[in-house]
Specification:
Elements: H1 13-22, H2 33-43, E1 47-50, E2 59-63, E3 69-75, E4 96-97, E5 100-102, H3 106-127, E6 133-139, H4 150-159, E7 166-169, E8 181-183, E9 185-186, E10 188-197, E11 201-202, H5 213-225, E12 239-246, E13 254-255, E14 258-267, H6 273-291, E15 294-303, E16 306-307, H7 312-325, E17 330-332, H8 340-343, E18 349-351, E19 365-367, H9 368-389
Parallel strand pairs: 3-6, 3-7, 7-18, 8-17
Antiparallel strand pairs: 1-2, 2-6, 4-5, 5-19, 9-16, 10-14, 10-15, 11-13, 12-14
Helix pairs in contact: 1-2, 1-3, 3-9, 5-6, 7-9
Length: about 400
Amino acid sequence: MEDLKPTTDPTDPIPLARKLIQAPSVTPTDAGALDVLSGALEALGFKVTRYPFDEVDNLYARLGDEGPVFCFAGHTDVVPPGPEDSWTHAPFDAALDDGVLWGRGASDMKGAIAAMVAGVASFLKSEGQPKGSIAFLITGDEEGPAVNGTKKLLEAITEAGETLDHCLVGEPTNPAHLGDTIKVGRRGSMNGVITVKGRQGHVAYPEKAENPIPPLLDLLDVLTASTLDKGAPHFQPSNLEVTTIDVGNAPHNVIPGEATAKFNIRFNTNHMGDDLKRWIEDEAAGVHKKHGIRIELDLKVTGEAFLTPDGPFTDLVRDAVAAGTGREPALTTGGGTSDARFIKNYCPVAEFGLVGATMHQVDERVDAGDVTSLAKIYADILTRYFKTFA
């Protein structure tokens, strides 16, 4: 296993990646991760501004005074490591063993942030200061509630007069190999809780009770039997999944007074969150009319579906990935949500990072060669970007 050694070469992403991993920045704790990143960016000439919101720290950095502004975005917070004695290498040691970088955040997404910084260093070394600006938008709240992170950071920098022209998020987009996939959009997501309020009673006297379970099952049957759509360009069909049904009624001879269910909808660009809310509310009203029992809904849209259309920006990202990996990346929208759902309200956004096969798992790790290759791809993206848009 190799030891962490100081380096004077800012184009090498591995030492920076290891320093970032060694900061145990489990959401919302920063643990010095943004200090490490700030130092690396300031050494390249960036003006760095920190934006703390409540217990979350965030960072915005910019190099240059004119447009267009190309922005790298991501997060330094990580999910908890789980049982540390189950790891091959301790989760925050940042072990480099036989060409593999181990640690919480190696894939998601400290390795990519280090590659961004190294990519900028390589670009500046070969091309010099571009006619335009490079920015970094980094949060410490992506893995958590996402309340005090990218959303507020975007609002704050916009109020300060900043404008982003295009953004690349470094989430681990590739399922198996670097170059597999570029995300050009994301499905929307809605979380729902259905609570049916009945009246408890003895099973031998049902006329004195109101059983909440049949109305709940009727509503779930209507919702799950519905075909929301057959897909959209770059999107799979929308799906509604029931995740739990809870009654909490142990006795056999008691009709429960309440029953609840939770569900999630992942939806494509055929829908808006408010439209889905109205559909569910209408179906619940129909079941209420049939049974005469109170139904309460708690519906929260955590992100709308979006798609960055094909064009010069997605073309240059795809061409750089293909040139750097020898693979023709698929342009997809699958997977969960990311902070791109906030960024898309300000500028076109795409996502490309490392292989995500071990993200959020015990023994999270990435091929160190992939981190180095990603830095070169990011440098190439910058070269292509300023030739196209400046």
